[in-house]
């Protein structure tokens, strides 16, 4: 058995049976070995950022890592932005990065680069397999490292000849470390804070964003008067009727400051203490008010669900949580504004949908207008590196082939990883992408004014404008095999979304929103 | 004056007056400052890999660095593959990478990552500006570091508040270190080797690939009997009638070994000693035969042109070089094979064209059939990280607005940085892209068999196949504002290329080549 065969069998044995791949020459034995191990599903992407974003979306929904297959340092570089997002989401992932054969390494061939240093910038675990006899054991440890709590990226560097040489054997899975329980003394301390009656916010993130965590948190809120809030961009959030109305901390610093104003105790469950996305002149770096104490009920990677249940038991034993009733907005008519787009989505969102949200500025009203929809999951852009939406939708759909995936996708961001559409088509996945087509980097137009930049003259404006020429997403999607339509009114969007949701396979709707300026 | 204004003015003063940009929030003051410094031309790209590849193509043609403007670590990551190619080309480039404000750095905001470590993997020079008072001096040193011989990538990390704070001033340019001359004793030694009469190859690369270097090398060859050869993928090569017939070392290892078989002396001028792109089972890692001595006339970064002239003077004073006569292939008819495509290009290649070659397997016959065309420059993929072609064409066209640019672009590779087409259109550049549309990663199909992989079954084949769905490059290009046509015969290609070359602005021709398999 050669190294590649042992590697793939070991991954499959450890529960990693999907690989998002963009291979090159140094990975040809891995590719060849796929025919020997039919349990491993390989999904071809045309760009590495699609592979890494897909592995992120897959793991967020499947709850276990996918593998990626990347081609040396430059291939891993192409995947880096979405690896960054995955790192911020604490997504478990096993990167397999091919490298030159061991004998070739010292020759400084054209594709040689410092893979190890690059991998270190986003990985929780990095190893270079040194021989075919090692590779399976390395892979087993990689899976355990990735899947242990909190999830992280494990990068296994695979020299070509370690793949192709014989002498390898399959390794048994290595134990995955589960999320540790929070000590009861910590729960007691937080319960004591809540009993003070001072203004408190229970701030959720990570695994607290599932149904069970939210329901326990809602009991705490009902019994103690604490407000519920969540991090701005959770990796995965359960949403919809029957769950609490969980406000997200707003993105704009001024609004975040207002949202937490007056809070005396910020109680973290699965989340880090919030900070602003960027620093701005004259503003503090985070929204936590002076005089507010931050308490950690559970740190990321600890078992927030059990901690919240324990806390509810202790602080709010008989409380009845306030939960959202089922409700949908009416289908809007007329102009296709961002809010009308949100209403269409809220009105039509199917049962058990997976929403991949990279709407950015066009997401106004989305949270509000989908909050009473049927139960669904919501995946956000965790690390701020745009271009995650189309790939994440790919991965989520591979993980959950029986659930509809709806991608709400800013136009500028879509172009970073646009070739993901081809993979949507090749795999014939039930993904409906709604492009929020406002013809600009609208978020940067906001930011240009917010940072107090003075010269918003023509040359600056031109760097934030996606017109001249306009991007025709219908043509682009069609060129990659995804059926596409254009919606210019609320009615058209409703009609096209309704049809896309009942037809199998991928669709794209170019939602033409008002131009700015 | 704020840091951003001082930075841009300093860059312009040092001769860097083009910036390929994909900015984000942390770069908004740089963007705003563009209105204050109209001498700086900013070119928007929709993806950082387009910006870095364009800066590479620009500098190869302009002979001086462009700047890039990138958004934190993930933005730089998106640019990494083409930064790798630029590093291998020894291209001078000034990366400006925005980062969080200094006060925000420690907060570990979502976009925080180890920019410095990442930059270290491809940069020859890295610095983080610490205050507005430093930034201009840092920029001046960055330009000098990039432009000094051999060219390299200088990465300047620019915290947002170093941009926005006042207290900066313009810095004077710093002296650029020119290529050092090769000592005459070295030239004497090489001349002595050549006088032995033993089989010798004069192996050119880097700055020896310009007209002057090639003409001097041709005199040496004529006077001494040495064979002329060049590296496989030179950053920039002068070509065409009136220059010597400069064979390139073939890419496939077996052919490279055959090309150098029997050579006793390999004389390097501007090139490194060749190595194979990849290691393969049972093959040596490089094509230099046993018993062949490698002599360095000039190392990369030394003045190869003067060294070759000195050598010609010493070893071949009266030799008349053999130079190519003007000749063009006849326009082919019928099936559009790669060779027919090459003949069409050779027949129509305009005077002073810039050819950007990422044809990969579809490039068969291209070198031969364009060798007698009018004088032109040829830019190759230096680092093997595919997705450089469309961006390099952008940069080359910005550098040389009066010269036609022809991109010969493999289909799979095109998809890595396809949004470059939008920038072709926005800037209305005279770029004609010919997509070599064979519907597969054909080079990997070669490699899959070459590495001796056994199971070339259906699952492996599917990972190398770009069909299902096929990519419609006419639709994709049209969707980004580039007029596009499809050629299915040699006549159609000739007709469409002829028209594209006389019409101003960008064009794309989808050249449908025979499918493999």
Automatic annotation (TrEMBL), chains A, B:
Signal peptide: none annotated. Residues 1-106 form the Thiamine pyrophosphate enzyme N-terminal TPP-binding domain. Belongs to the TPP enzyme family. InterPro entries: THDP-binding, Thiamin_PyroP_enz_TPP-bd_dom, TPP_enz, TPP_enzyme_TPP-bd. It comes from the Bacteria. This is Acetolactate synthase large subunit. Residues 374-510 form the Thiamine pyrophosphate enzyme TPP-binding domain. Keywords: Thiamine pyrophosphate. It holds the Pfam family TPP_enzyme_C. PANTHER family: ACETOLACTATE SYNTHASE LARGE SUBUNIT ILVX-RELATED, THIAMINE PYROPHOSPHATE ENZYMES.
């Amino acid at each position: 058995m050669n190294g590649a065969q042992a590697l793939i069998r070991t991954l499959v044995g450890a529960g990693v049976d999907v690989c998002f791949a963009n291979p090159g020459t140094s990975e040809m034995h891995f590719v060849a070995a796929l025919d020997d191990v039919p349990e491993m599903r390989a999904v071809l992407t045309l760009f590495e950022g699609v592979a890494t974003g897909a592995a992120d979306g897959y793991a967020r929904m499947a709850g276990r890592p996918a593998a990626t297959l990347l081609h040396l340092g430059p291939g891993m570089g192409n995947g880096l932005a979405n690896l960054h997002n995955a790192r911020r989401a604490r997504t478990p992932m096993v990167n397999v990065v091919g490298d030159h054969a061991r004998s070739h390494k010292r020759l400084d061939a054209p594709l040689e680069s410092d893979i190890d240093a690059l991998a270190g910038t986003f990985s929780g675990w990095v190893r270079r397999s040194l021989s075919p006899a090692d590779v399976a054991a390395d892979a087993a440890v990689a899976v355990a490292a990735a899947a242990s709590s909190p999830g992280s990226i494990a990068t296994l560097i695979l020299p070509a000849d370690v793949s192709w040489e014989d002498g390898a054997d399959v390794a048994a899975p290595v134990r995955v470390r589960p999320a540790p329980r929070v000590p009861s003394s910590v729960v007691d301390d937080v319960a004591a804070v809540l009993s003070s009656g001072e203004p408190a916010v229970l701030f959720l993130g990570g695994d607290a964003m599932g149904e069970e965590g939210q329901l326990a948190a809602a009991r705490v809120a009902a019994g103690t008067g604490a407000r519920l809030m969540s991090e701005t961009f959770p990796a995965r959030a359960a949403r919809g009727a029957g769950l609490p109305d969980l406000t997200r901390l707003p993105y704009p610093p001024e609004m975040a400051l207002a949202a937490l104003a007056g809070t005396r105790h910020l109680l973290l469950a699965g989340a880090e203490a919030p900070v602003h996305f960027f620093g701005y002149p004259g503003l503090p770096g985070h929204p936590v008010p002076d005089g507010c104490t931050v308490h950690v009920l559970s740190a990321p990677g600890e078992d927030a669900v059990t901690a919240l249940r324990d806390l509810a038991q202790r602080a709010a034993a008989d409380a009845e949580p306030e939960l959202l009733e089922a409700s949908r907005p009416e289908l809007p008519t007329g102009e296709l504004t961002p809010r009308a787009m949100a209403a269409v989505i809220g009105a039509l969102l199917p049962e058990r949908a997976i929403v991949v949200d990279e709407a950015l500025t066009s997401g106004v009203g989305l949270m509000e207008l989908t909050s009473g929809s049927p139960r669904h999951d919501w995946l956000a852009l965790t690390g701020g590196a745009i271009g995650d939406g189309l790939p994440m939708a790919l991965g989520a759909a591979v993980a959950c082939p029986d659930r509809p995936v709806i991608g709400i996708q800013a136009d500028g961001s879509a172009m970073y990883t646009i070739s993901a559409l081809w993979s949507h088509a090749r795999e014939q996945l039930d993904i409906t992408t709604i492009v929020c087509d406002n013809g600009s980097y609208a978020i940067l137009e906001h930011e240009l004014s917010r940072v107090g930049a003075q010269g918003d003259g023509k040359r600056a404006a031109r760097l934030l404008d996606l017109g001249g020429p306009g991007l025709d997403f219908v043509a682009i999607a069609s060129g990659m095999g995804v059926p596409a339509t254009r919606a210019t009114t609320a009615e058209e969007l409703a009609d096209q979304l309704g049809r896309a949701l009942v037809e199998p396979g991928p669709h794209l709707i170019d939602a033409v929103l008002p131009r700015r300026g």
